[in-house]
Amino acid sequence: MFPADFAYARARTLDEALDLLDEAHAAGQEAKLIAGGQSLLPMMKLRLAAPEVLIDIAGLPEPVQGGSYGQSHTIGALTTYRQLGAGRLPSEAPALTDALAVLADPQVRARGTLGGAVAHGDPASDLPAVLLALNAELTIASRKGRHPETHLGPYPRRAGKEPSDIGRREITLDDFLQGIYTTDLAEDEIITHVRISTQGATASAYEKFPHPASHLPLAGVAVVLTYKSGRLTDENGHVTDLADGSIVRAAIAVTGISPRPYRARAAEALLNDAFPTPETLAAAAARVTLESPGSSKRVSLLGDQHASADYRAHLAEVLTRRALAKAIARGGRNS
Amino acid sequence: MPAAREVPVQLTVNGAPRSATVPARTLLVHFLRDHLGLTGTHVGCDTTQCGACTVALDGVAVKSCTVLAAQASGCEVTTIEGLASPDGTLHPVQQAFQDEHGLQCGYCTPGMVMAIRQLIEDHPDPTEEQVRHALDGNICRCTGYQNIVAAALRAASATALRATASPTAAALRATASPAAAEREG
């Protein structure tokens, strides 16, 4: 089994990769970027995708660099899952470690990249759920002037020796993901970085129910909780510890059950400024497939021969309870 | 470099330089089997699930049915044929498969051996649970995995013994990977 015929080019720089995208476009050819290719190549072998040009960006030097700035962590889009797992992950986000341990298998994790995971727009992909719960933002490069440049901060813009006609825009992952294999990425753009923000998060977890053969999640739920913390000192010098075990902010993201991974805002709303009693947690989990806090309408659900829509929705509720319990058992209060 | 349907591929395979110009869509596993005659690497499922095609690409285990030969160009590849010493001494993982009867039909074995080699490099002293988790990407339809897991555990202790027994080997490992040496104490 092998892919349909295509032309291959290996880009050595971001500049060259953008040129190759333009050349293919000018020739009226469908081009695809390939990094690890762990999702794209299987699709091409099944002839579900048949790009005419494949541009290999795995060797680009730029999208490998990353760094931390306060509670914000920038990761190069070409970072493989294996590198991500072996590197210094932000300790505030064990949900990432959870996902990296159960995502596909070791050989696939050695090749698959963070940028590929988001660019692919797979409705059943583990990492986007965790990234959504961590309020991920993407940096996307293209030729200057083609797309409005935006900067969401707080990581300082990279100045450097790259050609001045490369522009960058930033977009939240929530806005980027649109539907089944559909994202906001234009044909002349390349994702270079993913930024996650832990914003004082004190507990997190990822739970999935994998398809036994493909290991893809039939449902997966990421939970990131921030507990109330801090100290107040009054005029007499009395110190009051504000940490009372209540949750200030909850982020819950679900994958595998809907056309795109989504933030379960209806469930989150019940946990914001709440004590995590068993009743509250169960009530939040029960709302994980609702479209918005004020609505009783469900998100659009996917079903197929592996699992019906109702079954996937049920899994999402159960996994939300488990992920919440795991995060709470791990996190405790901010000490 | 403009995009081309035929691409030059230059690899170091089991220590020897190999090169050929092949259609861009040639998968690494076909390059190894059909162009180089290295048929020890097997094609099982062809859908990135079974792991029979596992090889080491620049020292890291990957599924060669899901890598283009063109993507691998410039890299070092180690296949099952490259594990034993030139004098025929088996690699500790291969030896452990023989000792523990870790194979029946043998179809999955090359991939299992390459995956376990990676596991031991990452976790020199794995638990049974770690072994089973590390073999998530390798399917065996004969053994029920029991003897494969036993072989992996035996290979890990054999590797550890060898490292303690030979000061030179231990020193070499320390130079190659300070982190691994630190883990081992």
Report on this model:
The complex is a heterodimer of chains A (335) and B (185). Chain A is an alpha+beta fold. Chain A has eleven helices and 16 strands. In chain A, the strands form five sheets. A five-stranded antiparallel beta sheet of chain A has the order 4-5-10-6-7. In chain A, strands 11-12-15-16 form a four-stranded antiparallel beta sheet. Chain A has a three-stranded parallel beta sheet with strand order 1-3-2, covered by helices on one side. In chain A, α4 (94-102) runs antiparallel to α7 (126-133). Chain A is globular, with a radius of gyration of 21 Å. In chain B, a hairpin with a 2-residue loop joins β1 and β2 (16-23). Chain B is an alpha+beta fold and 185 residues long. Chain B is globular, with a radius of gyration of 17 Å. Chain B starts with 5 loop residues before the first strand and ends with a helix. Chain B has two domains: 6-82, Beta-grasp domain (Ubiquitin-like (UB roll)); 92-184, [2Fe-2S]-binding domain (DNA polymerase, domain 1, Orthogonal Bundle), CATH 1.10.150. The model of chain B is unreliable at 176-185 (pLDDT under 50). In chain B, α4 crosses α6 and α7 packs across α8. A five-stranded mixed beta sheet of chain B has the order 2-1-5-3-4, with helices on both faces. Chain A binds chain B through residues 1-10, 12, 20, 23-24, 34, 37-38, 41-42, 45-46, 53-56, 58, 82, 101, 104-108, 110-111, 213-215, and chain B through 1-5, 7, 23-27, 30, 46-49, 51, 54, 57, 60-63, 66-68, 70-71, 73, 115, 118-119, 133-134, 136-138.
Number of helices of chain A: 11
The largest sheet of chain B has its strands arranged as: 2-1-5-3-4
The CATH architecture of the largest domain in chain A is 2-Layer Sandwich
The top-level CATH class of the largest domain in chain A is: Alpha Beta
CATH topology label of the largest domain in chain A? Uridine Diphospho-n-acetylenolpyruvylglucosamine Reductase, domain 3
Main structural class of chain A:
alpha+beta
Please count the beta strands of chain A (DSSP E, at least 2 residues each).
16
